[in-house]
Amino acid sequence: MWLGSWQSLEMGMVKLRPVLGVDAGILFPLVYQTRVADTLAWDGPASFEEFQQSLAEREVQTSLGQRHVFTIVEPQFGKPIGMTSIRPDMQLFRGDVGLWLGEMYQGRGYGTQTVRKLVEYGFEHLGLEKIESCVFTGNWASRRIFEKNGFLLEGTIRSAVRKRGLAVDEWLFGLTLPEFSAWRGVILHLCLSPVWQKAKKEGVYQPTSLELEGFIHCSRLEQILDVANRFYFREKDMLLLWVELKLLQPEVRWEPADGDDFPHVYGPINLDAVIAVTPFAPDDDGRFRQFPRQ
Known about the structure:
The protein has an 8-stranded mixed β-sheet, sandwiched between helices. A 3-stranded antiparallel β-sheet has the order 9-12-16. It has a 3-stranded antiparallel β-sheet with strand order 11-14-13. By secondary structure, it is α+β, with helices and mostly antiparallel strands. The mean pLDDT is about 90. It has helices at about 25-30, 50-65, 110-125, 140-150, 175-185, 195-200, 210-215, 225-230; strands spanning about 10, 15-20, 70-75, 80-90, 95-100, 130-135, 150-165, 165-175, 185-190, 205, 215, 240-245, 250-255, 260-265, 270, 275-280.
């Protein structure tokens, strides 16, 4: 299946484009004999020549729709910073996702946005019913990338792969099409409990930010931890409002902020659009780490 309109997948801080053989020159130093390969089932390239040939083969295969391999590009300067792929099964029913980023680009949100866009590609372009990924147990950074994108931990696969002569366990994460559809149809809003109690009495939710800025700040699921830690660190009396987009009456605009696109609600939120309200508390040290579940 050819990429068609998906030849370039761009979102916020990252752009995914079909891999090219010439990418080897920039990507090779990011993975060769680095700690990046420690977290992958693949041990990394043995030589530049091998890596360049591998990328050239994948360039041809991706152009023919036989594979779906992308170079992760930092769009501001157009520099390759890693690789990702999605591997569908023969029935185009289920696929698995893999990625790696150079060490200097890790922990900056590139991985989360890469998986988000690749998941959209898998469900909307390839027509998959489920997407999975395996992560070495103990690799919490990668685990958070998938949890931020709505993946659920399905279990631990014992002795899943042999890595440098040792048996390694893996976490298995999965996301189904219905889960993806539900996840995309909901946005989240953080508020203090007294603010929500006031809204219930008034019959509409209109915080002070609506008057001051003209809109209500909301987030996607994968953004909520960063938002909570930035603006509500150590705050314990928090609630999370789950707002269903199709029930929401005011306009929602997806606008850039801090290198990502956030949903802004331009008007009071009608209470029937709030399909759930859940407590959202930090850990003992004040940081929010647990991804919320409705």
